[in-house]
Amino acid sequence: MSTVARTDASEIAVHWKEEEYIQPSARFIGQANLTDPGVVERFTEEKFPECFREYADLLTWDEYWHTTLDTSRPPFWKWFVGGRLNASYNCVDRHLAAHKNKAALIFVPEAETEPAHALTYQELYTRVNEVAAVLRDFCGLTAGDRVTIHMPMILELPITMLACARLGIIHSVVFGGFSGEAAGLRAADSDSRVMIYADAYYRNGKLIDHKANADIAVRTAEGEGQRIEKVLVWRRHPGQDLTNAAMVPGRDYYMDDLLKGYRRVKVAPVSVESEHPLFLMYTSGSTGKPKGCQHRTGGYLAYVTGTAKYYQDLHPEDVYWCMADIGWITGHSYIVYGPLALGATSVIFEGVPNYPDAGRPWRIAEQLDVNIFHTSPTAIRMLRKAGPDEPAKYAYRFKHMTTVGEPIEPEAWRWYHEVVGKGEAVIVDTWWQTETGGFLITTKPALDPMKAGSAGPPALGIFPVIYDENGKEIPGGSGKAGNICIRNPWPSIMQTIWKDDDRFVRQYYAKYCRNPKSTDWRDWPYFAADGAVLAPDGYYRILGRVDDVINVAGHRIGTKEVESACLTVPQVAEAAVVPVVDEIRGRMPTIYVSLKPGVADPQKVSEQIVATVETIIGKIARPKGVHIVPDLPKTRSGKIMRRILAAISNRMDTGDVTTLANPEIVEQIRKQVQGEGPVEMQEGPEDVKHFGEQE
Ligand code: WTA
Question: Is 329 in the pocket of ligand 1 (CB under 6 A)?
Answer without folding.
Answer: yes
